[in-house]
């Protein structure tokens, strides 16, 4: 059940506290008033949870910033600070405590209410505490289902495993997971980056355990031959091989750059990790995970505007790139909220070129995903819809969304958007009578 956001107002000046309460109410939220830090602590302890805090520094029983500092970091709310004294030390201290905005009295209420609306906007995601779950295996995207099956098969076997996937998809993390859940996991676990050193020493160090060869395609011909000989010898001490690859090995075999006998010996088991762009349903959970991992103990929020930009990106660097973006955002925000202002510039898209037309045929990715889900739901119904039914339903929805922009007047909408008013009326027949 939806409930209104709740704001705790900690302000001893009664008239100003009432004005804050009115601003909170106008923003669609409820509020509780506390004239002292002690009263605020009791409300935070005994009342239903709050979503934001308006805090005066000059409280009668305690400095407001000292009160905020005394709260556990994980329990600090998105905060707006007000004070009669805007000293630089207060500003710096507030910034270190993650305060969103800092206002001096007399208050500019227009700016204040704008900041209040920002922190009360619907939050897309609040990062949960980081767990031992690995980022590569979070979420429930359709593209990940075969991956889980493939990993399960690899854990139940001692055969070599080929781990395929683009750079940054988590191949080495999967290798660790397979080792941790396989038999004989007490043996050594050795990572060897192909092309950086001779393979012989790594094979010796990994005897009786697991050897992960990263970037298999970069193995030298001599190291490829060494692996073939080791596999053929069937020596009990020869390590189990887990190999990662980002490119098409079959093409390398056809081009004579990789040994076919080694290729086929490593094809026994395979785990193919999808790129992030093919599992965007998991991105919100992944973003939450990385935020909680990068800022343990802090109450990190990712606003819907930032999430929309993340969902619209193609992620050539996959999970690694997403983690770096979240790290950048946390540094730029220097607080508990990440919004679009805190994302790297390249995620904002290229600036518009004067006179250059925007490609209006390209739908934003979040809209495309919503459309796919809606179509899927319609086709799961008892009788499949016709194309006409689908298109008319979409058109009706579009008209309803457009009407408020034209004062709810159908005639004005038709005139300004060059539409046929009779057709619009027909679409809305029985659902909207205003013209």
Characterise the protein shown here.
The structure is a single chain. The protein is α/β, with parallel strands linked by helices. The protein has four domains: 6-120, Rossmann fold (3-Layer(aba) Sandwich), CATH 3.40.50; 142-273, P-loop containing nucleotide triphosphate hydrolases (Rossmann fold), CATH 3.40.50.300; 280-348, Helicase, Ruva Protein, domain 3; 385-435. The protein has helices at residues 14-26, 37-46, 64-69, 88-96, 109-120, 145-155, 171-180, 199-205, 221-233, 249-254, 260-265, 283-294, 304-312, 318-333, 365-379, 387-402, 410-416, 421-427, and strands spanning 6-10, 30-34, 52-56, 79-83, 101-104, 123-126, 161-164, 189-193, 210-214, 240-245, 269-272, 301-303, 337-338. A five-stranded parallel β-sheet has the order 2-1-3-4-5, with helices on both faces. Helix 3 links the parallel strand 3 and strand 4 (79-83). Helix 6 (145-155) crosses helix 7 (171-180) and helix 12 packs across helix 14 (318-333). The longest helix is centred in the C-terminal third of the chain and has 16 residues, at 318-333. Residues 128-133, 350-361 and 430-435 have low confidence and may be disordered.
